[in-house]
Amino acid sequence: MTTHGSLDPRSSFTDIDRRLFGGFVEHLGRHVYDGIHEPGHPSADADGFRQDVVALVKELGVSTIRYPGGNFVSGYRWEDGIGPKEDRPQRLDLAWHSTETNQVGLHEFAQWLDLVGSDLMLAVNLGTRDTAEALDLLEYANSDADTSWTRERARNGRVTPFGVSMWCLGNEMDGPWQIGHRNADDYGKLASRTAKAMRMLDPDIELVVCGSSGSGMPTFGSWERTVLEHTFDDVDFISCHSYYQEMGGDAQEFLASGVDMSRFISSVVAIADAVAATKKSRKRIMISFDEWNVWYLHNEDGGQNDKPEERGWPIAPRLLEDQYHALDAVVFGDLLITLLQHADRVRSASLAQLVNVIAPIMTEPGGPTWRQTTFFPFSITSRLAGERVLRVPVDAGTFRSERFGDVAKVNAVATVDDEGLSLFVVNRSTTDAASLRLDVSGFVRAHGRAPRVVESHLLHDDDIYAANTLSTPERVGVRPLDGAAVDGDVLVLDLPAVSWAAIRLV
Ligand code: AHR
């Protein structure tokens, strides 16, 4: 039987850091208020947290969650969100032209994380604030010394430190939209002195310096180089952010998004390693891909959809509530495959975001919650991903992309663990089904027996624009992949055009 590739457990090249399956919660629109926190909702607990949302976040399987922004953090005063709720100030949030009530802050969010079983990753404000305020927050969150801040923390109900290990040094400081936007030199100096001081307080923390907010930014590349020249010795990670959307109705081009993400990662790795070389250092800076998703951010004319000045300063307005269709979920699944393919350097990633705001989980005030199409590739990949990553070279032909030239129609990655192997695969072609035959003789040699397919999941809809909505919450889902089976030494898979699948072999 002709094969198109192989699945050999011996070709594993890296372990996986579970932080790759992270998420992101920003004070934005109905994410926190009327999303995860809705005191009047029938499923809310005594603290106002919707338990139906908690159940779905657990099912999604997110590891570390980045908080509280995003653009929001660059104007945020973290002290507004601690202490008695009735005393907390109501403030204008300039980033999203909204009013922030501060009814959820660090303590409440940490409580919610305990419910969903995820870890906290905090961002400090380097937009309107400086090193001193970052140190105050770090002392409040992590110190076990007897200080005014730790006494206040205890008075606010938390004697033991929060023990936050991962910290972002601001957010998207390269973006002109960012409050306190700086050039790379100024930001690099600020990030370096803030990182040094934070490490004096807590040497065990891991620090993420801001990379570019997209590979299309005019300063992309030179930003990374300059910022790392200043901060190389002070930080562990540099961030990448990237959002994708279908433009001009060109689904085929949209399906090449994984190639863009892959090149973005390789470029940042190359720049970080070049800076290492100039410093004669063997240290390797890792990537925190701490914002990624499909997001319908731009109009066809290249402008942004949102006109904040037209809406005043509402509390928890409906913002960025993108409805995802089957095609989006296939691209999204491919982005996850891409992150896994770079798991040796992408040691942390955050799906942006989680609830209501460009989210896999939607809610209606007083009403139900439902899974968007993108929920499925994330929850299945997070659940089935094993300990190590395998490269899965697949030769199933190419299509022509305007931006990327010849692009592989089928993209795949696998993970291994003691029990078996999980394969994640996408058919990017809008026209051709893919009949794949993958050689599994390596599995047979490694385990002394032929593998069996014990789980298979296919995400595909004949209508690529079908979506789950309030009125049709289960329109798109996953179903078993018909015919996925091992025949001798060969795994047989038939994937329809525009589809994503996961297979578990033991
Ligand atoms: O995730 C939405 C926004 O996208 C974030 O606030 C910002 O960091 C990015 O531009």
Quick take:
Belongs to the glycosyl hydrolase 51 family. This protein is α/β, with parallel strands linked by helices.
What key attributes describe this structure?
Glyco_hydro_b, globular, 8-stranded parallel beta barrel, 6-stranded antiparallel beta sheet, binds alpha-L-arabinofuranose, 506 residues, EC 3.2.1.55, alpha/beta, TIM Barrel, Immunoglobulin-like, 2 domains, Alpha-L-AF_C
Write a structural description.
The protein has 2 domains: 5-9 and 390-505, Golgi alpha-mannosidase II (Immunoglobulin-like); 18-384, Glycosidases (TIM Barrel, Alpha-Beta Barrel), CATH 3.20.20. Helices cover 25% and strands 23% of the residues. The chain contains 11 helices and 24 strands. It has helices at 51-60, 106-116, 131-142, 148-155, 184-201, 222-231, 251-254, 257-278, 326-341, 375-384, 441-447, and strands spanning 5-6, 12-15, 22-24, 64-67, 91-93, 98-100, 119-124, 166-169, 206-209, 237-244, 286-294, 346-352, 361-363, 369-371, 388-391, 398-401, 405-408, 410-416, 421-427, 434-439, 453-459, 485-487, 490-495, 499-505. Helix 3 packs across helix 4 (148-155), helix 6 (222-231) crosses helix 8 (257-278) and helix 9 packs parallel to helix 10. It is globular and about 70 Å long. It comes from Microbacterium marinum. It holds the Pfam family Alpha-L-AF_C. It catalyses: Hydrolysis of terminal non-reducing alpha-L-arabinofuranoside residues in alpha-L-arabinosides.
